[in-house]
Write a structure and sequence with these properties.
Blueprint (H helix, E strand, L loop, with lengths): L2 E9 L4 H17 L3 E2 L5 E9 L3 H11 L3 E3 L2 H6 L5 E4 L6 H10 L3 E4 L7 H14 L3 E3 L7 H12 L5 E9 L25 H16 L3 E9 L4 E3 L5 E3 L5 E8 L4 E7 L10 E7 L2 E5 L4 E5 L23 E2 L9 H15 L7 H20 L3 E2 L9 H6 L1
Parallel strand pairs: 1-3, 1-5, 3-4, 5-6, 6-7, 8-13
Antiparallel strand pairs: 2-3, 8-14, 9-12, 9-18, 10-11, 12-13, 14-15, 15-16, 16-17
Helix pairs in contact: 1-8, 4-5, 5-9, 7-9
């Protein structure tokens, strides 16, 4: 079978996520395996153009991996027909203008989250892409993780019976930067630079919840800044103005209650950095990025509360590990392959800019809920896709 090539502009690959997950572990891995196999047996390989502001950094990355194309000029890159896809993993503040320019240039668009700084801008991007007729996608990487793939199989098989609740814990201790370097960039802790754990994680929680359990219908959240002073990459002390923890309750379609804690100020006492417990009438599961343990109703123990005697029963031993049925692949790479098939042969890819806008809305309303101290409803999001066409007529 023949092989075709598709050109991808990759904007933001000098950053940690853009470089490691999207360039090295996705695009270069796809090249090394000989491309993406289509439904007719043909293969599509990818040719990346590394785009950014720092030419020397781009050249160093290109030389390290034997790549040919770099650029610091977005306009000229978008004007070149060799590149059919535009990918964005810049900081959130730079995303709207770049993605909208790519849409205007007729490029298919694939982007990291959040898709914009505000819900209105995120919806605008979805409208622009729909009106321009370009394929568009947003990274939903956690849905492709081995643990969550096992969870999806359990949900679809009816293992849980009626799902009652979801409880999730995410986070770890991010060092303040005084003595031990911080594991996260300092802009994450400045609201004026687009930082905050709510803006970061609620976009993830929205797509995890709506794709596995049901649409998020309401949110009550408390966003806080536990650590008010940090030290940046240059050793300078700065005030942390963004939230570093968020504690939220989400109501989902069908009456499911989800409680999710997100924190960069918590010490880990879990098997993985993120874990979800799903409880249903017929069984329960505890799921991480890779692991998945279940407890069916038939083998559920009968706990007895007795504060006068030490507990001798090992409750963890009552759970069964769900085995791996296939080698684990990188979730970012799997979604890249799905999006490339979507562009080339119109394969399925439901994770579009409108899905990204729903994530931005949940983060925005989560912060608003925290500010006013009450629960907020999320009506179904319907985008009037012809609105811009009518305005421009």
């Amino acid at each position: 079978m023949s092989t075709k090539t598709i050109g991808v502009i990759m904007n933001g690959v000098s950053g940690r996520m853009g470089y490691r997950q999207h360039l090295v572990r996705s695009i270069l891995a796809i090249r090394e395996q000989g491309g993406v196999t289509l439904s007719d047996g043909q293969r599509v390989t990818v040719e990346p153009l590394l785009l950014g502001r720092n030419e020397s950094k781009l050249r160093e990355i290109a030389d390290r991996h034997g790549l040919e194309h770099i650029s610091t000029d977005l306009t000229s890159a978008l004007a070149d027909d060799r590149w059919q896809i535009y990918f964005d993993s810049q900081v959130t503040q730079a995303r709207y203008s770049s993605v909208s320019a790519a849409i205007a240039a007729g490029k298919h668009v694939y982007t990291e989250k959040p898709t914009a700084e505000t819900f209105d801008d995120a919806v605008q991007l979805a409208q622009l892409a729909t009106n321009a007729g370009v394929k568009n996608g947003v990274v939903h990487d956690k849905l492709f993780l081995p643990g969550l793939l096992k969870l999806r199989r359990l949900v679809e098989s009816g293992f849980f019976g009626q799902i009652l609740s979801v409880r999730g814990e995410f986070g770890y201790w991010v060092f303040e930067g005084d003595g031990r370097p911080s594991q996260r960039p300092s802009w994450n802790y400045r609201s004026e630079d687009g930082g905050g754990i709510t803006a970061d994680m609620f976009c993830h929680w929205n797509y995890v919840l709506e794709n596995l359990f049901g649409r998020v219908e309401s949110v009550y959240s408390r966003a806080v800044t536990h650590i008010g002073t940090r030290v940046d990459e240059h050793g300078k002390t700065y005030p942390a103005t963004a939230d570093d923890a968020a504690y939220a309750i989400f109501e989902l379609t069908g009456g499911i209650i989800a409680q999710l804690n997100s924190s960069w100020a918590v010490r880990v006492n879990r098997d993985e950095l993120v874990e979800f417990q799903v409880d249903g009438t017929h069984g329960s599961a505890v799921v991480g990025l890779f692991g998945c343990r279940i407890q069916p109703r038939e083998v559920t123990p009968r706990p007895t509360w007795n504060p006068d005697l030490p507990e001798t029963h090992s409750y963890r031993s009552d759970w069964m590990q769900v085995p791996d049925d296939a080698p684990a692949e990188n979730g970012f790479k799997l979604q890249w392959e799905q999006f490339i098939r979507h562009v080339v042969e119109n394969g399925p890819h439901p994770y579009d800019l409108l899905a990204g806008a729903r994530g931005v809305r949940l983060a925005e309303l989560g912060l608003e809920s925290s500010r006013i101290g009450r629960r907020l409803d999320l009506p179904e999001l319907v985008v009037p896709v012809n609105e811009l066409q009518e305005e421009n007529a």
